């Protein structure tokens, strides 16, 4: 192969002989190395572009945990380079956390199922969808009361075998964990929207509130992980989660304590209602699908 051919971009055909040491094509931006990446290069590329566990990740985590709200303030004031970006940080922690949740849930369910007698799955069970709607399952037969026909048909297909209930019960928590990860993508911007409503007079953009929401939810996920380690950790987290949120809001949005606390209570109540509805929807999806 000639030197000219070697210095021609394989993507766009641009000749970069004027800059032979270039790592990327000056015309289209594709890398100039024709050899496939090694396993190490592939891992580095994946970690660097999709999962933020390199560079400023430890520094970002420490800033997030040690000084509530400081990471958001730094981002708002333009100090971004030294830290992992908010969305990447949230996604990284979420991926790690939901993998752990999945493993722990699987172990807990296996133990619970092992303790249940086989006849308990066939003696008659019901799924309630409120006060007036339910489905009764017994010996692989499904009877619906007050449910739409398409829901009843779906339940019949899913539970229409004697062993179906055991199978569904054994996998339901794992499916809920999986679908809850998707639900969080709706709850985080919802929380940002509540912040926007609570601080309409501040003229902050939705994106700025979204940064705070991402940082706060990242901390909450870390706190939940910690609470699973021991009973004393769960007790600490119960106090730390609201205290952290208040301190973070104080540093980010400033203002007097009383209005801040009132805003925090209003936001928390609205968010709790929405999260409760989301749990119900996730449970139905995990049960029916």
Order of SSEs: HHHHHEEEHHHHH
Tell the overall outline.
Answer: extended
Distance between the amino and carboxyl termini: 56 Å
Name the beta content range.
under 5%
Strand segment tally: 3
Structural description of this entry:
- The protein is mainly alpha-helical and about 290 residues long.
- The protein folds into two domains: about 60-115 and about 170-289, no CATH class; about 125-160, no CATH class.
- It contains ten helices and three strands, in the order αααααβββααααα.
- Strand 2 and strand 3 form a beta hairpin.
In brief:
This protein is mainly alpha-helical. The chain has ten helices and three strands.
Task: Please write out the topology.
Layout: H1 3-6, H2 39-49, H3 57-66, H4 70-76, H5 86-114, E1 125-128, E2 134-138, E3 141-145, H6 149-159, H7 164-198, H8 206-227, H9 231-253, H10 257-288
Antiparallel strand pairs: 1-2, 2-3
